[in-house]
Structures are given as C-alpha cells and as structure tokens.
UniProtKB/TrEMBL annotation:
<dbReference type="InterPro" id="IPR040632">
    <property type="entry name" value="Sulfotransfer_4"/>
</dbReference>
<protein>
    <recommendedName>
        <fullName>Sulfotransferase family protein</fullName>
    </recommendedName>
</protein>
<dbReference type="Pfam" id="PF17784">
    <property type="entry name" value="Sulfotransfer_4"/>
</dbReference>
<dbReference type="InterPro" id="IPR027417">
    <property type="entry name" value="P-loop_NTPase"/>
</dbReference>
Length: 209
C-alpha cells in the first residue's frame, strides 16, 4: 500500500484528531508519532534516518495509507517525491496558540529528556528547530516558514491547507468523499498530552520485557 496522504503540518496542529479523522474516512491506517513510540524498532529506524541514513520508505509505511505529525512531517519533501500520487495535507493553526501548546507539551517533554540521542531531541529540536526551542520568535519563524515552503511547493489540486477546527467539510471536499454522520474527532488536548505520553512509554517498556 502506497501513501495516499502526506501530512506536512507540525505537531500540535490537531494531528492526532486528523489521524482519527482520516481513518474514519477510509484511507487506511494513519501513521503518527504514537505509532513510532509503541515500537522500539520504529524508534530505531527514525533515529537512523535522523542521523542521515537512507530510509526505506516502503518498509516504514508498510500497511499505512496516510501519515501525519512528526517524524514523517519533517520529510514531506522526500515523501512527496517518493509517493508522487499522494495528496499533501498541511495542518495549521494560529501561530501564537500553536506555540503555547508546544510549550505546554512537546517542549516541556524535550527539556526533561535524559536520552541525548532521543528522536525528540535529534529530530524535533535539532532538525525542525535548528537546535533552539527556547527562543519564541525563532520557533514561530520555523513554524511559519514551513507553512510557506509547503504552500509554495504544491499546486492547489495536490495541497489542502487545513485550519485546525474546520471540521469535515474541507477534508471531504479535498478527498472527494462523503461527510460522515459522526462528529469530527477531537483528540489529544494539551491537558491530555503528558498522560498519553506516559501511557505510550509504559506500553513500549512492557513490550521490551
């Protein structure tokens, strides 16, 4: 199965909700950072990619029809070239609110990380934000520059810029599918983030044992 949808939006732009929404629309399983954290082999694969090793995209996304969130979102250029028929989904939200959410969740977690080779540090901190997650202006500039780069790269027929909170209509129109009767999902609010991370880490540790 080749990817039919590639998410190019940063984490904390409603990607967990998008994952659920896309699966509800029948695109197949959707890859997300949660998928990585559940399995050590996936963590190891992405660490190798972050070090510059050549990725096997077919192997990484085997069984998945879509991907959103980091780590894959950082590689939207490579993935869009490798899967030329895939549509690009750029999730966005107000830059200030996005930054506040990052501070409450991902950045807090990264600053506590003791594993210096963690995927969060090596990919998100060092690559996405060029090693600097403490300068608000720099972080927001990185976020806005990614949006501009994605929008400048793809034609309208291949790209949807999806504003978080817009519900089903833009996505269903973009994918040419009916609007579901069920409400659009709302997942992983900031106050749920750390509990979810703890749960995922426990599951991975149990699988190691």
């Amino acid at each position: 199965m080749a990817l039919s949808i590639i998410g190019a939006g940063f984490g904390r732009t409603g990607t967990d909700s998008l994952k659920t929404a896309l699966e509800m629309l029948g695109v197949g399983k959707c890859y997300h950072m949660h998928e990585v954290m559940l399995r050590q082999d996936r963590v190891d694969n992405w660490r190798a990619i972050a070090r510059g090793e050549t990725p096997d995209w077919d192997m990484i996304f085997q069984g998945y029809g879509a991907t959103v969130d980091w780590p894959a979102a950082f590689y939207w250029r490579e993935l869009s070239a490798y899967f030329p028929d895939a549509k690009i989904l750029l999730s966005v939200r107000d830059a200030g609110r996005w930054y506040d959410s990052m501070e409450k969740t991902i950045f807090t977690t990264l600053r506590k990380t003791k594993d210096l080779e963690s995927l969060g540090l090596r990919l998100i901190r060092d690559k996405v934000f060029a090693g600097n997650i403490d300068d608000r202006d720099h972080v927001i500039d990185s976020y806005q520059r990614n949006i501009a780069d994605v929008q400048a790269t793809f034609p309208p027929e291949r790209l949807l810029t999806y504003e978080t909170g817009s519900g089903w209509d833009p996505i269903c129109k973009f994918l040419d599918v009916p609007v579901p009767e069920d409400a659009y999902p709302h997942k992983n609010q900031s106050n749920e983030f750390h509990q979810k991370i703890d749960t995922l880490n426990k599951i991975r540790e149990e699988k190691r044992d």
